Amino acid sequence: MTASEPARCPMTGLTGPAPVLTRRDAPPVGDLAQPVESYARARDLLRSAQAQQAGFLADTVSSVPGSQHPPVLYLEGEEHTEMRRATARYFTPTQVETYQPAIARLADDLIGKLAQRGEVDLDDLSLELAVRVAAEVVGLTNSRLPGMDRRIERFIPASLNAEPGLPTNAPLLENMQQAAALSLFYTLDVQPAIVARRRAPGDDLISYLLSRGYNDQDIVTECVTYGTAGMITTREFISAAAWHLLKSPELRAAYVHGTEKERHAILHEILRLEPVVGTLYRRAAADLDLGGEVVPQGSVYAIDVGQANLDPAVMGENAASLCPMRELPRGVQAQGLSFGDGHHRCPGAFLAIKETDVFLRRLLIWNDLEVVREPSVSYNEVIKGYELRGFRVRLGKARA
């Protein structure tokens, strides 16, 4: 390679910056919080015990009437540590491996739908996969009617801006529609799961919450947070990863023919460039020292995950390129801060990558799989992340 030639990724052979598919027209972060774009500063904030969760409608959901226990997403201190320690066993790499056969069967069923129909929206398949896998872990397996994936999708208020400090009032009609969707979710999915586990506890989250004395309102609120922070985000990442792999024959070949370690490295690198949750908010619960700067109590920060993940001081001078297994400083995760960091780091990180890999590996072995229509990109202001819709794919011919 001459001095004028761009750096070539040793694993994929790709050169130059990768196309960022999901943030081409991303809305700007509001001005109510101080922006953080450097990786080191962002990680320090996320790891500080005095920097508390301020996003995902924390001020609203954590004070739901009738709820005695805030969801773990909004807990802090010893109570949060205890809950995370107790529920971590559902998401460890060892435990996730036990889900492999069920994930594989589900992935085969979903790809069977594609094979039968010849053409489907990939984002519909990814929604069903993400919801059904997470439902097994949570314990939402006794629904009175099928269609839980669509019920969860309907109660996510995409237009409600979750930036701290903004009013959370939605139009009356939207409030009524969301209330109806939540009521259906509780009646058809959550309540029968609670009844079944009161009779016969299982090895799942709902059974554990019941053992701690959580009431129905506590449990449905916890299920809602898992629906938004877990199932929905995994759905979007599966679509984003498939989009990258289908656009680049070199990347697709490296993925399909790679080992599991290599495939996971590719997925982590895509996630670094395309974080599903683009902004994380933190509020200083007390004066804290941030790299020598004293941050006063009450200060709110907006961590730009996408920019932090492109920090050349950490990711190297070719930070915008898609190069799996890049050399990183000790302690830096391959996906950057896309799963967060510190005490609120996403507990389902291993599961999300595993189910994405199981599904996409099976999908992409079909040589005649092609894109009919690339997805449209919109933004969900609750999770502060992208939504990919209408991602139409087909096989060369329908198969019986």
From TrEMBL:
Domain of life: Bacteria
Annotated region described as Disordered, given as residue ranges: 1-29
Molecular function terms, GO-annotated: heme binding; iron ion binding; monooxygenase activity; oxidoreductase activity, acting on paired donors, with incorporation or reduction of molecular oxygen
Gene3D superfamilies cross-referenced by the UniProt entry: Cytochrome P450
Keyword annotations of the record: Heme, Iron, Metal-binding, Monooxygenase, Oxidoreductase
SUPFAM superfamilies per record: Cytochrome P450
The protein's name: Cytochrome P450
Organism: Deinococcus wulumuqiensis
